[in-house]
Amino acid sequence: MLALGNLAIAYASRSGQVQAISGVSLRLEAGGSLGLVGESGCGKSTLALAALALLPPEARITQGHVRFEGADIDRMPEKSLRTLRWRRMAYVPQSAQNALVPVHSLRRQFRDTAAAHGMRAGEADTRAEKLFRRVELDPAVLDRFPHELSGGMRQRAIIAMALLFGPSLLVADEPTTGLDVIVQRQVVGLLRDLRQEHGLALLFISHDIGVVAELCANVAVLYAGQVMETGPTADVFSAPLHPYAMGLARAFPDIRFPDRAVISIAGHPPRLSAAPTGCPFAPRCPFAQAVCHSVVPPLLEAAPGRSVACHFADRAGELRARASDAALWDIAA
Amino acid sequence: MTEIALPAPSRSRSLRRAALLPFTSWSGGFAALVLLCVVLVALLAPWLSPYDPLVNNFNPAGQLRRLEPPSSAHWLGTTYYGLDVLAQLIHGTRIVLIVGFTCAVLIALIGTNVGLIAGYYGGRIETVLMRATDLAFGIPFIPFAVVLVALLGPSLWNAIIAISLLMWRSTARVIRSQVLSLRERGFVRAARIAGASDLRILYVHIFPNVLPMALLYVAFDIAWAVLAEASIAFLGFGDPHQTSWGQMLYLAYVSGSIRQAWWWTVPPGAALSLFVIAVFLVGREYERLANPRLR
Amino acid sequence: MQFWAYAARRAWHTAITLVLLLVFMYVLFRLVPGDPTTILLGTGELTLEAQARLRELWGLDRPQWQQFLTYAGNLLTGDLGMSFYFRRPVVEIVAPMLGNTLVLMIPVVVLAILLGVAAGTWLGWRRGERIEEIGAVLALIPRALPVFWIGIVLLALFAYELRWFPIGGMRQAFFYPETWYQALPFFDVARHLVLPVATGVLASMADPLMIQRTALIEVRHEDFMILARARGLTERAQRRLARRNAILPVLTYSAIMVGFAFGGQVLLEVVFTWPGMGRLMVSSVSQRDYPVAQATFFLMAAVVIGLNLLVDLAYGWLDPRIRLD
Q1: Farthest-apart Cα atoms in chain A, separation
Q2: For A220, A289, B180, B266, which has the most beta carbons within 10 A of its beta carbon?
Q3: Which residues of C fall within a CB distance of 8 Å from A99?
Q4: Overall pTM surpassing 0.90 (yes/no)
């Protein structure tokens, strides 16, 4: 129901154009769940905003399309988009201090959202109270202000508001980041239950692989604005095909192997204003060859439901074995 | 609150870059040139000025050159009292610089220290200092300056005192809120644990970080101080021995000459405005440095 | 967070500030060498013996702190003494002038804020477009022009040359309306108001404009603005939300602005010969009429301090986060 087709997005900045996303294609089925993982700055948030047609004016879609429930929303006029907004697709941002309007009570914000779609205040209140109870918040909190709530409470309030009209798509951008582990657990559990109850499709952006593994059936690994690998979450992390995914899988402690050394991929992502040629991960890839630095590997289907963008995807098994050696990753960028 | 970038490693290189910053944009460059001109004119005033600004001019027939429009002898004409307008305009730059610079230094000293001490120590000291700042905000400036100058006598020095005694208030408030946010930062805590004394923390660690903000406000305060002195002079409380631009406008108004003597009324006002705009524009360039989101 | 606890705290701070103001004024007006009787001595009306008796009568021989208390008490209860110059109670002289000043000052402040906020919102919403860059620089220009100079230029142009408006004052001494609109109430005052108000607004609107513009630019980047668009709010509703969140700095500034407004008011009244408190203050200081000078000064400062309190309360009402201050 949500499809990004060969999408490319560029930001206009003082020093010229910055290509934030290059040729990304993703699919999300109705009721499905897709996680987007990657380091900071890889373009995850940009993709999330693009999926909701929420890109700021300085961002331009230079190529491709965004299709939601059969309609091309990337070139839809704002007026038509408004009928879709919140009713069919909702946004759950990170619960930062200013994610909600600081000077209005939560009840007021529910009412304003409702009013924008022609719902009366009375019904908005009823729904708000019901939703609050569902996310385990005391309805009395509705009369509070955002800064009076803890991070976890705010996040749950944001989720509650997102469900106001029972959308079919929820785009969540780092909803668990910045919360302590216990609260994270609650939010993840809440999202999982809600998905089952309402049959929501979930696009979940995070840099925390552990959380994505719990919530999302499928995952797409992003690097420097390009997709490196996609597939069912369990498969991608137990048997990754792309070196970057291999590195990520080894960068988290695994409870099955408590003594295994955690690696960190040396170096840092490229600056998007100075885009390198060839595979964007080549500078940091321990398996990079000459072809990797000159030719961009296309995203190809390696197995049913799994795609990877790597010149040496057919040798993934062998590379994976070598990747388990921690010393391999200690190369200078 | 704005984040201040800590100084770059090479001191002299960053200083030079800072000094040349205004020239990175058209408006900033133009403004900086204007200010440089003012400084130059002020320094070279006795040589540049065609006449003595306070000496009456007479024509060959022995009559006072009263309210003469611009001519080849007097490029900007003469005043009601036969004084050359251009000469007064040129010498006025000195007042502008003296007032601007002195007030800036005094305001910076008082305001920054009040802000530093109030923000750092908190408690009673902060309450007292902040109420004093509230008081300074509550007192309307012109009435206060008028009263003070009337009581102490109309002189440039008294005007400077009157200006500085109140204008430190904005700097104090801003510096205090800066200090409040810096106080809990890592490097301050580290210094405290290392056993540094309060004074040392305040002036060696915190002060350099509020300095850019302080300097920015001081830059704007220069403009206000100059306008303030002009206002005091316009009300008739200016220093009679000096030729400030505000005083020129006072004499023009009081002698009933504003109706016809545009050569007398326009130049001083235009000069004041130009100077203040230039200070604003230059200040804006530095403000962009402190707050990148304004770019 | 309880609003009333915050309000009480603010009121207490204001009280302290008022006390400080009284002390400050007490000291300030005694910078003159000698005491109030010396001035009368100079006019040759007092013998030395009579002066001693007068000093006793006025309590000038009592300790300073006692004098201060009497002084403070008098000011606060409205006993403002007698004018040296007019030989009448100060209250009689100042009261009508206060009204005249407000007639000029209130329109200036209100219009400056309204126009400044509107223009600032307009500019801030169009950030990044050419017109905004130019507009921002243009908006700075009136701020730099000395208010009295604007007044002089407008006077020379519109009053003297074009004769559209009167040269000064608040009313014409003998005004006989000739047309129907001239017969409207307050017409005479209104036409006297145009130039001074235009001057004052021109000079004062730049600050609210720039503050609102900067605040709006910052607010537009906030997360809740993205969320507002995602929630399906109309562009109007979004703009209103931005303005509502951006207005707080302007509100704080408006209190400071009134302080400046008094200063500008003095200049306006002098240039346009408006019979208000500002002009009275300047003339009374020149004439060494200290009771009047003191009274006007106190009134102005007290009004500004009071307004600061009102704005603090309004801010606390509008922005719940600040009540923790």
Answers
A1: 66
A2: A220
A3: 223-224, 227
A4: no
